[in-house]
Amino acid sequence: MVFFKFAAGLAFGVALPMYCHENLYLVIATSFLRPHLKYRIEAAKRTRDQATSTQELDSYFRDIFKSFALFWLVIGPVIYKTYYLKEELFA
């Protein structure tokens, strides 16, 4: 069962961006990659000998949860405007 869930997650994670509209893809990419890129930039500024503070980790997890919540707030209007109204949001 675990392997099926892993394979299904991998398949949907790869297939969904290939077949969805560009507007939807950009919302998915922006929502889920932004906190990780922000953390990577901050980590690159830190020296390798310096430990990551708990405040930075807390901020990182808060950013992940806020991005996830924002995704669910934004995805409905994006789908409506893209598929029902046929508008180009990021053209």
- Report the count of strand segments: 0
What's the SSE pattern? HHH
Unreliable stretches: none
Distance between the termini: 42 Å
Strand-residue fraction? Answer: under 5%
Estimated helix fraction: over 70%
Biggest β-sheet description: none
* Average pLDDT over all residues: 84
Number of helices: 3
- Integer tally of domains: 1
Shape: extended
| Structural class determined from secondary elements | mainly alpha
Calculate Rg over CA atoms. 17 Å
A few lines on this structure:
This protein has three helices and no strands. It has helices at 2-19, 22-45, 54-84. It is extended.
Task: Outline the structure in words.
The chain has 91 residues and is mostly helical. It has one domain (21-84). Helix content is 80%, strand content 0%. It contains 3 helices and no strands. The longest helix has 31 residues, at 54-84. The radius of gyration is 17 Å and the shape is extended.
Q: Tags for this entry?
A:
single chain, mainly alpha, extended, 91 residues
Write the layout of secondary structure elements.
Layout: H1 2-19, H2 22-45, H3 54-84
